[in-house]
Specification:
The complex is a heterodimer of chains A (778) and B (166). Chain A folds into 3 domains: 153 residues, Aldehyde oxidase/xanthine dehydrogenase, molybdopterin binding domain (Aldehyde Oxidoreductase, domain 4, 2-Layer Sandwich), CATH 3.30.365; 189 residues, Aldehyde oxidase/xanthine dehydrogenase, a/b hammerhead (Aldehyde Oxidoreductase, domain 3); 334 residues, Aldehyde Oxidoreductase, domain 4 (2-Layer Sandwich), CATH 3.30.365.10. Chain A is 29% helix and 24% strand. A 7-stranded mixed sheet of chain A has the order 3-5-1-12-9-10-11, sandwiched between helices. Chain A has a 5-stranded mixed sheet with strand order 7-15-14-13-8. Chain A starts with 15 loop residues before the first helix and ends in a 5-residue tail after the last helix. By secondary structure, chain B is an alpha+beta fold. Chain B folds into 2 domains: 76 residues, Beta-grasp domain (Ubiquitin-like (UB roll)), CATH 3.10.20; 78 residues, [2Fe-2S]-binding domain (DNA polymerase, domain 1). Chain B has 5 helices and 5 strands; from the N terminus they run E-E-H-E-E-E-H-H-H-H. In chain B, helix 2 packs across helix 5. Chain B is globular, with a radius of gyration of 16 Å. The relative contact order of chain B is 0.15. Classes of the chains: A alpha+beta (778), B alpha+beta (166). At the A-B interface, helix 1 and helix 18 of A face helix 2, helix 3, helix 4 and helix 5 of B. Bound molecules: FE2/S2 (inorganic) cluster (FES) (2 copies). The site of one FE2/S2 (inorganic) cluster has 12 residues of chain B, from loops. One FE2/S2 (inorganic) cluster sits at the interface of chains B and A.
Chain lengths: 778, 166
Amino acid sequence: MTRPLRFGTRTPRREDPDLLRGEGKFLADLIPQGALWLTVVRSTDAHAIILGLDAEAAKAMPGVAAIVTAADLPAGLGHLPCVDLIDTSLPVFHPVLAGERIRYAGQPIAAVVASTPAQAEDAAAAVIVATRKLAPVLSAADALRPESPWLYPELGTNAVHVTRQLVGDPDAAFSVAALVVEETVAVHRVGAAPMEMRGCFGEVEPGSGRLVLTSTTQIPQSVRAHLAEILTRPAESILVRAPRLGGGFGLKEAMYPEEVLVLLLAERLGRPVAFLEDRREHFRSAVQAREETIRIRAAFAVDGTATAVDVACLADIGGAYGLVANAPGAAIANARGGYVMPNFRSVATSVVTNKPPLNVYRGAGHPQAVLAMERVMDKAATALGIDRAAIRRHNLIPAWMLPLDRGISYSGLPRQILDSGDYVHAFDMTLEAIGYAAFPARKAAFEAAHPRRKLGLGLSFMVEMTAVGPDEPAEIEVLPDGRVRLHAALTAMGQGIETVLGQVVADTLGIDLDAVEISLADTDRIPFAVGTYASRGGAVGGSAAAKAGKALIEVATDLGADLLGVDRSAVEWSEGAIVRRDGTNEPLPLVELARLAASAGRADALRASVRFAVPDTSFAYGAHAAIVEVDTGTGVVTVLDYAVTHDCGRLGNPMIVDGQIVGGVTQGIGATLYEEIAFDAAGRPLTQGFFDYPIPVAATAPRFHLLHLETPSPHNPLGMKGAGEAGFTGTPAAITNAVADALGQDLPLTRDPGPLSPARIRALLREREVAQAAGFSA
Amino acid sequence: MTGVGTNRVAIIVDGRAVAADVEPRTLLADFLRDTCGAVAVHIGCGEGTCGACTVALDGIAVRSCLMLAVQADGGTIVTAAGLAALDGPPDAQNLTPLQLAFRAHHALQCGFCTPGILVATALFLRANPHPTRAEIVDHLSGHLCRCTGNVPIIAAIEAAAGATAP
Ligand code: FES
Ligand code: FES
């Protein structure tokens, strides 16, 4: 084939022109004229019993169309879903509206619908909610104390979901260990905080009466299935669409009460009903992430060989399940990452508290698990007097051991089999890129010149589940003008999926990228799929697109032979046209074929529908390294350099992959150094907006050094693994280790939750000074 | 007719004259989006912290979520949709040199922050055609982007400034 392949090139993104002109067609741009507006009355208490609710004055206010409380909802209305339940999971589901008990500040209590957003807000402010406050439970540790109140008194416990793994014989390994390292890693609560907030609108389709939800969701097909259960109506009577999202990151891989409310109210009122969150509301009603405490113990031999790991994770999941019961669980089961560590035990416990629900955010539990493991590596190296890089190299799984069955299977997911790659090579590349060998000299020179400031270098290695199954659908059709349209179930949220799928289809068919149209995330077209998460879009969506393209070639060639009246074996597909193998006719291009098919009444033949079955999970991996500067006077941590060597298999579009890594690392820097969703002693959110939730800006960006390995995944024809989450996953560990390197491995950076803020760094340094002055520590 | 409790606001948005009666409390951002159909004005926070809603009002960058529509009465507004009025002439796809630089440097992912950054940057480069990297970083301090890590945005602006150098 002469046409150069698009796959693997830095193809400029197809979505850019629209977005650059401000014509992105985000949810807020699509709300129908004449829609009514929903505002949600939310609890201001973290834990309370609702005594009474008075909406009479509010109902009489201008423009108000309806006010709905839990008592007004249809009998039998379901609760929000949770998808990773096991036999022993306790029922702590999120209601659409709180009935009797309030379990977090921000929980929806009533729905107010009015003609304009301002009228709805005015009326919502006039709804009077009388409550009896209960003592709030604000940490997982508190929730487990015997004297703690129970959020669900009927359950008699706040620990609601527990998963365990056991590989080998960790106790035996610990009993003969030369060194046992123990560490507590408390990870604070953060939010994905996409720049586009949540929103949705509900309509009733004229004629059919179907309910149509348009929502900022990463999982429209799942939302449809869940809505069918919640509303107890056939899934065929519901349609869900996702427009382009202004960022998702897992925050939009959830189901929200408003998605149910706008449909119920649109049906009841006979008008479209729209909801747009505001930023203050976002920080109390969108799912939050990461909060967990990990206790990790690891056994080492004198030569630095890690023989066993025992890890316990307590996740503070808030007042009810998010879409997942245990966001960290799957990653804790995978806590060994890229290290051999033959003996392993883990337990992950989800505990309910009076905070908003916890859910996944870029990397799910992986970043926390990597942080715990990598702190242990540094501590072991220090204790054994082994170089930090050497102890990691020594324990990394060598390439010859792959594929390696980890002996772990996590609820609903396939057995963990690390598939392919060269971990040690990636690690060495990162050492080179960050200047590991020259670092001691750089540090000495810098610190000599700046007495108050310290430099530190931190390392981390991450392995994560990507490109997960079970399968991915795609449909393809030839349009009357000869262009080809691919329908995919995926959601566009900035990851360039329209470009990557276009590249794959153009290559498969041998046609121009401009001749390919991509249509996404419409359950009317593709009702069943799992969604866009876990770094799966490019790899599994791309594989489905390639499969669809090949299927189209088959049907088009069949049809072409038929229409030309020749034997099937006499023709073949070549660069978007049907040609005779003997070269006796002009190629029959798709546009001609489409015309002929239409006039023969067979236009329907030029389409194909496929499902790519994912044989197994692909594990992407990467080696991270950070160099930070810490001002011991101010406590400010500045990230100077950041190196990543990542292997996500074949790179469909290296420009897009680099963008994912840089963006992910940046979010990881934010979560480690700046961001925290905080609550006061009564459990009310202190985080109101970006003025007190500082995300990274241009001024905080480090110098990046990005490298790739391209070990093809054995699990899909494109050889791709996922890249979306890799940037975040290794970052908290690399940054925290770098700060520890700068300030001393004895400083308990992870003992307490919270970002490594200037105030926290100063407090830790002061605590150490006092302890040293008192003669408490070496 | 001006109703009770409303004020007449007449502005020019991307070259188009719009006049309407609005409640005094109506934000400029909402007026631009809902009444003028200027969907390039994105609302990322509604409280002045993100910069997504930035438009040029009579040649000055303003956060349209922090202004009332009545304050803009009589003004001329440029959004990202009309960026050519602030930046160089557009190409066949109606993209200006600055927009092309953003595309070439992958300085947008979801694109939600992008319109505000483009408008503010076009004005910035008019005032300071050859900024240093430090000046670009400082200029971006009021603009939040959750996707790109900001590095590509700095690179795109450096390139655009270089490209327009005499
Ligand atoms: S929406 Fe105006 S600054 Fe964020
Ligand atoms: S590109 Fe998504 S917020 Fe900037």
